[in-house]
Amino acid sequence: MPSNMNIAFIGSESYPFVKTGGLGDVMYALPRALSRDGCTVRVLMPLYNCIPQKFKDQMTYRGSFMMDQCMDGRAFYVGIMESELDGVIYDFIDNREFFDWGNPYTGLWEDIPKYCFFSKAALAALNFLGWVPDVVHCHDWQAALVPVYLRTRFAGTPVGAARSILTIHNLRFQGICSIQHLKYWSGLPDYLFDYPVFKQNEDEANMFKGGLAYADRVTTVSETYAQEIQTSFYGEGLAGHLYYHRAKLSGIVNGIDVEQWDSAADKLLAAPYDASNVLQAKRENKRALQEQLGLEVDEDKFVIGLISRLTDQKGLDLVNAVFTELLDDDTQVAILGTGDPRYEGAFRYYESENKGRVCAYISYNEALAHRIYAGADALLVPSLFEPCGLTQLIAMRYGTVPIVRETGGLKDTVLPYNEYTDEGNGFTFDRYEADLLADAVARAKALYLKDRDRWNEMVLRDMEKDVSWAVSANRYLDLYRELKDME
Ligand code: ADP
Ligand code: GLC
User: What's the predicted TM-score (pTM) here?
Assistant: First the structure.
């Protein structure tokens, strides 16, 4: 059903302007999908200095104003720079004091003022532009003050008529600081700093907590994660709060933009391919990858890829515990990631000890990510927790078999291989235990080495699986409609 709704996306990053992880992908792909479905979508994000100049050159100035921000009435400049990309309008909030540094994030102490300002400025910009959305769709803690501002400082202004959704991409990060710090920078009234809203404990306030309380709807990026976060293990201290608000909480699994991730049109690959020539082309891509990474060039090796922020969320402690066990003469490992120095160091060490069999490429590199998705046989995602996860979706789309732990979105998107019925998309394990990870890798390797026909059938099944936004964008549309119809 075509839709004529107006939706404002508010969040801290969006591909291709700035991306540090999956949030950036979603802030790009979902607005595009909604716009194709007939919605008018504006994305509001900060004008970071780290946005490449070529994008800044395409922006036009839409206006500026001064805005009161802090408890003492301290005011800041708000500029609006605009550009359009594939039918989606991007409004960048400009203020050099806040956004001139960082990549784009700095430390929590500086990021809290930055995103207090951003959340308020985004709503003020909508009023300034005279564009009142039906729904403001806010993302993660950086935009969590938006639902609160909407019902307080902006109630009675034009944008105050909008409904709000707050999507949790990752509950690990919440925007927690002293009550004083948040009170000062948000300029929000005292009564909000009590337990039902921002108060976290005697001394601290929590931005995400307040946003979750005030949003009309809360979503997260998979059904399983929506359940998990109501338990203490996954709830990051907010399980009780989320359980209390469960009537407005739901899970909608992410998709990927299948034009952005299209192995047939991917100019970064040695040999672009679709399902009709995947088996041959993957061999060529594997050889090109091995050459680029200094791995022994041999298309019969079982190549395992790992593309990830290097944090404990991603299950790297398990990988570390069994790494040498995973390696044998038939196996190579290609790691691409940056993050926690202890994992960077460990992977560098494994590379130095296993030259030609292991490559640890410690950096953020879009092009290499594409080449690993295409050239590896399997992609490892053994996460401790995973709200959705996009790398397993991209892998499947590229005919690379995921090996995942059954948590969050990994559980919802990767059907475990069943050797009796020949169904499934990948190899999975349930408990967070290194031996189970090693066992899942061993099962994958055994199928690859000993029963290539069945392995190849899985590659084809994975390529044909629908990982696009089509279904999930419709679920968001239903939610927007439901909110729009609310009295
Ligand atoms: P998260 O958002 O938790 O980091 P996701 O799986 O949702 O995890 O998304 C990660 C995104 O970032 C994917 O698009 C992945 O390809 C990309 N990515 C992660 N690390 C790197 C890296 N080092 N270089 C290039 N792309 C990366
Ligand atoms: C977060 C999560 C990841 C999810 C992404 C996009 O970064 O860690 O699982 O895919 O957001 O929603």
Answer: 0.97
